[in-house]
Amino acid sequence: MRQDYGVTRAPSQLLFGAGQRRALGRVAAALGRSVLLCTDKRIAELPLLAEIIADLKAFDLNVAVFDATQPELPLHGIEACVAAYADFKPDVVIGLGGGSCLDLAKLVSLLLSHLGPLSDYYGEYKVPGPIRPVIAVPTTSGTGSEVTPVAVLADPDRAMKVGISSPYLIPHTAICDPELTLSCPPGLTAISGADALAHAIEAFAAVARKAEPDLAMTRVFVGKNGLSDHYALQAIKLIFDYLEHAVSQGDDLDARSAVMLASTYAGLAFGSAGTAAAHAIQYPVGARTHTAHGLGVGVLLPHTMDFNLRAAAADYADIARAIDVASSTDTDAHAAKTAIEAVRSLFGRIGIPSNLRAIGVEEADLPAMADLAMNAARLVENNPAPLNPAAIRSILERAL
User: Fold this and answer.
1) Per-residue pLDDT at 340
2) Which of 1, 61, 125, 289 is a Cys-bridge partner for 229, taking CB atoms 3.0 to 4.6 Å apart?
3) b vs e for 366-377, b when ≥16 Cβ sit within 10 Å of the residue's Cβ?
4) Could you confirm whether the keyword Oxidoreductase appears in this record (predicted)?
5) Is the pLDDT of residue 345 over 90?
6) Residue pLDDT, tens place only, 308-318
């Protein structure tokens, strides 16, 4: 673990625990009088939404609801929400749902606070100032978006998804209530958990940069650091201890709580350290196959770890010892290999495919995917082993 430098970026408040969603009205009332709640059709049909609206109105808040959030967050959906509620002028924007709902809340708040187009802000540190306060209430355990400075969207003018990264996008308050994940189906629980594990492992094994005083002021994702290491390792241990049980026994609140806490820890880890190859390569894989982000990342993670083995052996060895698949007497090289095999084994047990063919990738797709993955520069630069198109092609061939 790295001890000589640390960065944590986090919400002003993080409320965690069963039933904490009932604090939402009081939290929102402390921030303004009008609230725009962003969610999706599935949640809009649940009694949960009526419960939350009643809580907000009990604090005399004026509430508007946008329930048309789409998976993978297309640009036109963001623009439609902004157009519909610009005149409403919300003081607070709430995201309720999975990662797309939380990212929608962040980006709607951005466009309500600053002039568009949204493409002006693609990349790092492009947001010019604070946005209207966002309250993030996740209903899945995977993206960590409730605590991160990044939002990802699909722009039809781009070949793959793009990100906006700025500390201004971190929600003001995150309310993490594991009761909201009890109805999450096994398949979604598995791929969300795989995404959280990838966040934690890639943050823990990210490039360690020289700790210049301006590092965190010029890079949203600074690479491996002591504070992110702490969050990442805690997330990894929780996922190995509880994810399989949360997938198979979805009504177990203890397991759900542990996995949600792991997802939040992983978000705190990669919110400063960043992610790497598995996430960079998933962007073109997802664009080609139209598969869920967490699924693609889960398929790719063991293969990217294989590629990074020499460069990240010490970090992977620390992971192996933390999850008790290696001992202090094992060499780092041996322990690192056991960590990779532990990831493969866990993913196999929860139904994550072991290869890209299983999600629709074909050999003819690989050259274009390798080139496109290089466009995710902030992730490519964060990988512990150097990446170029040939290296990414070798990972894709192994994963195929």
Assistant:
1) 98
2) 1
3) beebbebbbebe
4) yes
5) yes
6) 999 999 999 99
Query: Do 369 and 295 form a contact (C-beta atoms < 8 A)?
Result: no
Pairing type for strands 162-165 and 150-153 reads antiparallel
For 65-102, the pLDDT digits (tens) are: 999 999 989 999 999 999 999 999 999 999 999 999 99
Output the CA torsion 68→100→265→339 (10° steps). Answer: 140
Helix, strand, or coil here: 133? coil
Joined tokens for residue 376: 């995710």
Q: Are 231 and 263 in contact (CB under 8 A)?
A: no
How does pLDDT run across 378-393, given as a tens digit for each residue? 999 999 999 999 999 9
- Got the DSSP string for 30-99? TT-SEEEEE--HHHHTSHHHHHHHHHHHTTT-EEEEE----TT-BHHHHHHHHHHHTTT--SEEEEEESH
Strand order in the sheet with 162-165: 123-124, 162-165, 150-153
Give the pLDDT of residue 240. Answer: 98
Question: Are 27 and 96 a contacting pair, CB within 8 Å?
Answer: no
Q: Give the up-direction half-sphere exposure of residue 329: CA atoms within 13 A in the CB hemisphere.
A: 0
3: number of Cβ within 10 Å: 10
Architecture per CATH, domain 20-176, reads as 3-Layer(aba) Sandwich (3.40)
d(CA 150, CA 144): 10
133-182 pLDDT, tens per residue?
999 999 999 999 999 999 999 999 988 889 999 999 999 999 999 999 99
Neighbours of 290 (CB within 10 A): 10
- Positive or negative CA dihedral for 189, 194, 197, 198? negative
Cβ contact 65:46 at 8 Å: no
Helical packing angle, 293-307 and 277-289, nearest 10°: 140
Stated pTM of the model: 0.97
pLDDT at 252 over 90: yes
